């Protein structure tokens, strides 16, 4: 990954800030769902389905960032 | 015993567990669907009119933007569901409990004992409220305690009746217990 170019550095910086923000709220959302949800199995199923979607798109976006900056 | 709220007592009977009406959830999902449609329209419109935006290094930047935008969409749909699921009102034989997830970092549980109830009011507003039978229930409490408010709950008149019936039952039981007429 070439982050020496200012434009690349900016894109990578914005990407990582946004992803950190989204990941933090995702993890906290899953935490409160499991912590306060009335049914643990239901909360786990919803969390796993959400994590599957979120991580798949996150992986795709990371691959895109990688090919954009290489 | 599986507890619905932390202070639930052994043998405390649960009469009603109520969440926001599905139509309110539907309205939130509709707003979410608008933002999802913006992404689809963006891809269709610019794909047809500005194909350069989807080719080469610009294409990768656009792709990265749409993927991050999709992450926002997935997260917001998840949070809409989490807030819907965690905001719940419970009516038991002893009390009315309002469990409120006011944000990601604020979880409030308010309890009102049946014998502290002074009055209950239900209110249905608007076309959709009348059509789908949802509205607000206000429970007036004794003393300086604020009134309890249930917003956009289904069948507000039924909930009001349950609360008042419980109050009547409780006050009759108290009168019999003390031997008063």
Helical content band of chain B: 40-55%
Helical percentage of chain A: over 70%
- Tell me the β content of chain A: under 5%
Name the shape of chain B in a single word.
elongated
CATH topology heading of the largest domain in chain B = PH-domain like
Overview of this structure, please?
The complex is a heterodimer of chains A (70) and B (181). Chain A has 70 residues and is mainly alpha-helical. Chain A has one domain (6-69). Chain A is 87% helix and 0% strand. Chain B has 181 residues and is an alpha+beta fold. Chain B folds into 2 domains: 14-21 and 88-178, PH-domain like, CATH 2.30.29; 26-83. Chain B contains 4 helices and 7 strands. Chain B has a 4-stranded antiparallel sheet with strand order 1-2-3-4. A 3-stranded antiparallel sheet of chain B has the order 5-6-7. Chain B is elongated and about 85 Å long. The A-B interface holds A 11, 15, 18-19, 22, 25-26, 28-29, 32-33, 36-38, 46, 50, 53-54, 57-58, 60-61, 64-65, 67-68 and B 4, 57, 60-61, 63-64, 67-68, 70-72, 74-75, 78-79, 81-82, 85-86, 88, 99, 101, 104-105, 107.
């Amino acid at each position: 990954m070439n982050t020496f170019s200012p434009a690349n550095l900016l894109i990578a910086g914005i990407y990582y800030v946004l992803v950190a923000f989204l990941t933090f709220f995702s993890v906290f959302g899953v935490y409160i769902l499991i912590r306060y949800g009335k049914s643990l199995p239901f909360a786990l199923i919803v969390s796993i389905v959400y994590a599957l979607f979120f991580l798949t798109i996150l992986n795709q976006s990371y691959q895109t960032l990688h090919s954009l900056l290489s | 015993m599986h507890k619905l709220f932390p202070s639930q007592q052994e043998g405390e009977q649960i009469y009603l567990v109520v969440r926001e009406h599905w139509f309110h959830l539907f309205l939130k999902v509709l707003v979410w669907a608008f933002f999802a449609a913006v992404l689809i329209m963006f891809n269709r419109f610019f794909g047809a009119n500005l194909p350069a935006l989807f080719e080469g290094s610009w294409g990768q930047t656009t792709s990265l933007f749409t993927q991050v935008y999709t992450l926002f969409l997935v997260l917001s749909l998840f949070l809409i569901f989490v807030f819907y699921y965690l905001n719940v009102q419970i009516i038991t034989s002893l009390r009315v409990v309002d469990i409120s997830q006011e944000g990601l970092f604020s979880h409030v549980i308010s309890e009102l004992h049946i014998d502290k109830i002074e009055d209950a009011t239900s209110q249905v507003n608007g076309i959709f409220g009348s059509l789908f039978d949802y509205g607000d229930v206000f429970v007036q409490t004794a003393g300086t305690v604020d009134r309890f408010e249930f917003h956009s709950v289904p069948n507000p008149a039924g909930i009001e009746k349950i609360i008042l019936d419980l109050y009547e039952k409780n006050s009759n039981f108290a009168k019999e217990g003390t031997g008063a007429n």
